[in-house]
Design a protein that fits this description.
Blueprint: H1 2-16, H2 29-41, H3 44-48, H4 50-84, H5 94-102, H6 104-136, H7 142-159, H8 163-184, H9 210-217, H10 225-229, H11 237-266, H12 269-273, H13 279-283, H14 287-318, H15 325-328, H16 338-358, H17 361-389, H18 403-419, H19 421-440, H20 451-466, H21 473-476, E1 480-485, H22 488-493, H23 495-502, E2 507-512, H24 525-534, E3 538-543, H25 549-560, E4 569-573, H26 580-590, E5 596-601, E6 613-617, H27 635-648, E7 651-658, H28 661-677, E8 685-690, H29 693-699, E9 705-709, H30 716-726, E10 730-734
Parallel strand pairs: 1-2, 1-4, 2-3, 4-5, 6-7, 6-9, 7-8, 9-10
Antiparallel strand pairs: 5-10
Helix pairs in contact: 2-8, 2-11, 4-9, 4-11, 4-17, 4-18, 5-6, 5-17, 6-7, 6-14, 6-16, 6-17, 6-19, 7-14, 7-16, 8-14, 9-17, 14-16, 16-17, 17-18, 18-19, 23-27, 25-26
Length: 743
Amino acid sequence: MLTKMQGGVNWLQDRLGGGEAQGEQKFGTFAGVYTPTILTILGVIMYLRHGQVVGNAGLGGAILIVLLAHIITITTGLSVSSVATNTRVGAGGAFAIISQSLGVEVGGSVGVPLFIAQAVSVALYIIGFSEAWQIVFPGHPLIIVALVTFALVAAIAFISTKFASQIQFLILAIVGFSLFSIILGSFPIAAHTGLTEAPQVWGEFPRWDFWQAFTIFFPAVTGIMTGISLSGTLREPRRSIPVGTMGAIATGLVVYVALSYWLSRAATPADLADPNNRVLVDKALFGWAVLAGMLAATFSSALGSLIAAPRVMQALAVHRILPYGTIFARETEAGEPRQAMIATVVIAFAGIIFAVISGGLDAIAPVITMFFLLTYSMLNVVVLVEQTLGMVSFRPTFAIPRLIPFTGMVFCIFVMFLVSPTFSLVAIVLALVLYGYLARRNLVATHSDVRSGLFMSVAEWAATRISKVPAAPERTWKPSVLVPVASTSALAGSYRFLWAMAAPQGSMHVLGLPQPGREEDLKDLDLLTQAFVDDGINARMTLLDGDNYTEGVRTATQVLRGTFFRPNILFLRLYPHSDLAELQDLVDRTAAYRMGIVLLARHPVIELGREQLINVWVSPQGPDWELDLRQSNLDLAILLAFKLAKNWNGRVNLCMSVEDQDKKMAAQAYLDTLRTFSRLPSDTGTMVWQDSFAAALQRAPRADLSSFGLPRDPDLAFSQRVVEMVDGSCIFVRDSGDESALA
């Protein structure tokens, strides 16, 4: 069973990536795109509801509805045709297109409602078939006809999914003959009097208002994704999809405009608006041909939807978007998504029951309209984003102007809110909730998308804009830490401290400096860097070969200082066994690169203790005792203490030692003012001792971390002795000049 399931997943992944099944039959434009698309367009709405639309809206209103619907489908058809000629669209249709551009999360947030709409479409066609059946047998109950028909459609779908493709030409011929019969009904032949009524230009809308009529009509033009979804079965998808899709849309437009005129001349508006009207049957030359077209078109559409929807569900399941995805991703040895089809049958059955209870086609059409409008808007957004980014990878053989997807997007959103503001908000909120849920699951796609290019374009735009405005590093400062390491274990040992320094908005640039002959020391450094990303920090890694650790850090610092998102803190470790001369040289050189320095000296036993209390030691600020942090090397120390305390859920003490009583009072006032203007938490302590620095260290509360300023000419040997005096971990901090605790 597991092997069979894995085989099914691999089969679908081949199609998601554009693979071809061995021995698969390939179709041309007419059979593979045009015919299935036009059969969906010329279906249940044309036969059973378009006459009522004309009766309510009049000839002018009906043509306006048809044109408005076709503005959306033409722009969307052009957009998806353009995308389909740039990349191989696999299983899932619209879901695959959106996922390949904006990511699996966005594709899934739209794909799930789209799948539901497609499953509910089965109910739409079943109810349509049942209403057509009642024209022939008015005594048969709608619910009985619907359930029997549904059982027959489900049985055929389970037994032979090739049935729909094998009979599509016969059904197209029946539909075509029914339209020919309608045309012949325009003339006074035999007992027919032809078209005698004067057309009503604008209707009185006795049953539906304009937007309700649009909602009822719109499912008639939602078949444009049919051919695109079958791209894997086409001989020449880049040619067949644009030609077949746009050909079907054009045919549908001509038919619906012509049929609107025919209906307005064939019967009075009152007769057309009557829910029980039989105008098409009664006014056609051969009424039986129209009935045959109704039954054939609705039956085949129901069968086609019941076959297509499970493929979308299977594509969603392969990407783990749906719960129990491994179940719905399975398929039989013949390649049938049996579990997904069962789920579709359940949803369609619920749709049929809802439709019968709530009012037939008119109850289902708004649901389908809203979710398809949402999907079409996202498809246009995909093309608009791809065109705007201007990436070399987007070079479709069927190129369209940017105005086309923009128009489609605007019209979709505009019409959604005009049709039903409440339902539109519900649909959008549902998509956003699904996106948020999927984004937290860290889904892995089998293909790349353009989100990185989108964000890069935004970053480039921002970099260009920011170069034209005055710099304000104090207001925009956040920690961007350069972490040079010679081994993965060195980074692992500082992981928690670095996370507390940078989270939540900071960034980390890990610089791997392998020592000659010890390259294995940096094994899995990329995985540890990725752990920062998983914990919410923007982290990246660079490996730099070199014979000298100090020169490697110096070179990287020089190169990175010219980048837009340059590091502003150099993180170093002070060990008991450190080469103080090498470290001193590194600290001295970094002073010229306008980078802050954080030198961490961890206690070998206590380490960071409970990660609760931080003592920040402030040097005496006499004789003026004025609050000017830029002169006292305190900005970075205070900002880091604030971040550490926040991430540790701890607190801070500001500490100082002075020599006499007069200075003690001034020092206490200074620390209180510093706490206030630095906006440190209210539980921040201020402590002053009239004693020597060494004695004050012994009298201070025992801290998990003590922070000291690092002067321009530091004595690192003295720093090591300080660690012994406080008997705890310490950081020695020097400002870069871009920080401000008072900003």
